[in-house]
């Protein structure tokens, strides 16, 4: 290893810039999980009976399951009794009607994170729903969106105000029995966002949710549901951060997307949960189930993710291509540094005829991190003329990290064309020196090379988000090259 | 501008440069010729600061500073430019973005603001025209899929944008077709001025025909064994390196 690589490695201890905590009074329930806890959560959220029953069913099912072990991840047993399942910032109301009622401390927290909740302060038209620990604390631009018939609110609010819609769609894409973490989430989910775009409506602004874990020892189990009716369009963004803590925090979310005939949903994530320190102490365990259902013909669901955070990432945003001519896309950049581990990828399930999917995965590993791509392309018997193209590239920085690719293809129809390409490369001394000779220091050179490597995915992010994501990549890389 | 004194440099324990000395003044063009493996690229690498090469002895003064104490990027920002014999590819990073980053780093070093978009584009256009570079090449990933000649022209283009004080051309002429050679030579000649020194590493006379160097040096076995005017290059082309070897033998036995 060259000196400058070493030098960079020595600078690993860069502070996680969102690692602060907010000092705010919180309503928490005791640690542990039982039917009583599930009932308590449901009661705190003033939920209808059917939902409580639904949660209890999920909980009972979860008790019969074991944590999945097939991912290329190493972590200690998680003690599910040692987690707080409900924590809410104490405000006078469950959900304030106006920002004036929001605790100023909370507003400050989000200002610090670069998210202004004051609508007039927001430059571009992005509506946000912000979720702190277990509850949504504010949603902006609601009335403007309502004019178009768009519902954008927290899940809790949706359960109160639009129970029929929630009941109709909740769990239809990710059934409560889907997997260990999905069952857990279904039992204890706290809040999240709900978004409904009626028939033929193009959502006039980006919708976004910002998740923040604050409370110590608490898990975050949010649940997001996006329904785009026939001919509807929406672009959705999700961001997240957490304070620095020495204990691991559990995050087990579910995102469900439904797209009707000719509907399109773009879902972009910049995942920046606290990754733990360079020795692997602390950090968020991120076990997430995200799935979209292209229900209608010519519908399209596109996942774009930039993953830089979390100690452990277990996440496979997937698309069920049920409608004929539907399209599923997955664009991913996963950057692991220090002792981070990521096992991420996608599942494309081709059921309808003439369905297409495209997978572009860019894994960047530095430090002693482990970065795996895991993808499944499934072509059902009746799925005539389907096409898939997968491109999985790995970039290694240094020689202590690992990159792994696990592509699975199951084709039951011989008219399908499934293509897979994979490459692994290292940032070479030659590339670094070339950049240095032009006046870029090693850190800038690495950031530039990585940005170039991830370009195809970054290009899919909405403009403002792409700039943020690019900065995030550079910041996450700072000092973690070696 | 550049004063190399008794440089010894080795790689992986093997000594390649064995007491090389060379003085280059501002405005001069020096050609360095020599057989394969004699240490020409090694010299270029040592000047640019490639750290695999260990300098065990000697000093290099560059504009009043000890070059050996500067990092490669500092050397670059001080005005040293190396046109690589084998330019590397950087996927996903366009030549435009790359050169913009490089230029702004240099400007920052000089205490200048980053160039505004309009001036940058103007500069880019002007230099691309000078090297007859197709604009589409500038938006493509740096050197990726470029032909050998395009890569070399791109190096000179970068030189033109960065406006260095000292340029080292390491076999920039190899792999160029006749027209490209003329274009590159024209580019270099245009950037030739009182304050810009150029070291041209080459095997052939043809680039030197265009550049008309002030001095020609022969590098052999890690040392400069013969220096002369531009006619020395012609003599080499005609006779090969053997006559120098013979001369050396003679001087040893004499
Ligand atoms: N990484 C390395 N390890 C060992 N030896 C090396 C290394 N790099 C260069 N050398 C050796 O150093 C010597 C000088 O190489 P250099 O590239 O400087 O020659 P050159 O004069 O530029 O040759 P050419 O005309 O072929 O470009 C050669 O013998 C070469 O094999
Ligand atoms: Mg050479």
**What gyration radius of chain B follows from the Cα positions, in whole Å?**
18 Å
* Biggest sheet character of chain B: 6 strands, mixed
Number of helices of chain B: 10
Helix content of chain B: 40-55%
The strand order across the widest sheet of chain B is 6-9-10-3-11-12
What is the N-to-C succession of helices and strands of chain B? EEEHEEHEEHHHEHEHEHEEHH
What does this structure look like?
The complex is a heterodimer of chains A (482) and B (254). Chain A is of the alpha/beta class. Chain A contains eleven helices and 23 strands. In chain A, strands 5, 6, 8, 10, 11, 13, 15, 16, 18, 20 and 22 form an eleven-stranded mixed β-sheet that branches. Chain B has helices at residues 40-48, 72-77, 95-109, 117-130, 135-139, 148-162, 178-190, 205-211, 231-239, 242-253, and strands at residues 2-11, 14-24, 29-33, 53-62, 65-66, 80-83, 90-94, 141-142, 166-170, 197-201, 215-220, 223-228. In chain B, α3 runs parallel beside α6 (148-162), α6 packs parallel to α7 and α7 packs parallel to α8 (205-211). Chain B is globular and about 65 Å long. The two termini of chain B are 36 Å apart. The A-B interface holds A 2-4, 428-431, 433-441, 444, 448-449, 451-456 and B 48-52, 71-73, 75-77, 81-82, 84, 87-88, 90-93, 97-99, 101-102, 105-106, 109, 141, 158, 162. The structure holds adenosine-5'-triphosphate (ATP) and magnesium ion (MG). Magnesium ion (MG) is lined by residues 40-41, 85, 170-171 of chain B.
